[in-house]
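User: Can you predict the 3D structure of Cell-wall binding lipoprotein? Sequence below.
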Amino acid sequence: MPESLKNTIMSRDSLLRLKELSMLRYRYILFILVSLFLLTGCSNREQQAIRALNEFEAESHDSISELDVIKKSEVNLQDDFEATIGEDESLETFSDEQGPIFDNLNKRQESIEILIQLNKSLDKARERLAAIESSQTKGVTKEDITSLMSSLDSFKKVKGKFTKDYQLMLDAERKFYSSLGDEDMDYKKFQAGLSDINKLADQNMKEVDALSTQLDGLSTVIRSVHDKLVVAE
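Assistant: Sure. Here are the predicted structure tokens for Cell-wall binding lipoprotein:
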């Protein structure tokens, strides 16, 4: 084989090897970049989950306070009712929806609306947790995340039933108290209306206690998962 041809073939082989090495180097660099991207993505998702849990935890503490407001307002209901009668024996105050009894109603209405708004941060926390529901998540097991998501779903269901039932009672109370100033209001109607409200109140107060207990337990689980994620960062 002529020396010139031999050199040409060797040059081609060298070029091919260089191309192969370049391709391997490119693939290696690409692998590193993709790995870094995935690690960064995981880290970001974990940080987002931590922030979402922080937000929900803060609002859940507010919810405990609102449940306490509801309980205390329920205790003061009789006194507020009597105070409203004392302000105006003609009962026109009831027709105008004024006085301590309606202040009591409005206060509980605000608390229920705050509890309903908790769904936004709850849904966000669950969404962020779903993004890290993996055995690759640092600091927590997949079972930890799955269990917390299940607890959030259960709490949302119980809270949804409570806020719906309690809103129905508030509407019934408002209708009843405002009707006390009507000319056709008599003792029979008064007793019937009061009896209906008391039945709703008894059931709802049981739900308040159940919701408070569940919220306390949920806060403990959230804090546990949150702290594990923070330590693993």
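The chain is about 90% helix and 0% strand. The helical segments are 3-75, 77-87, 92-95, 100-131, 142-179, 187-232.
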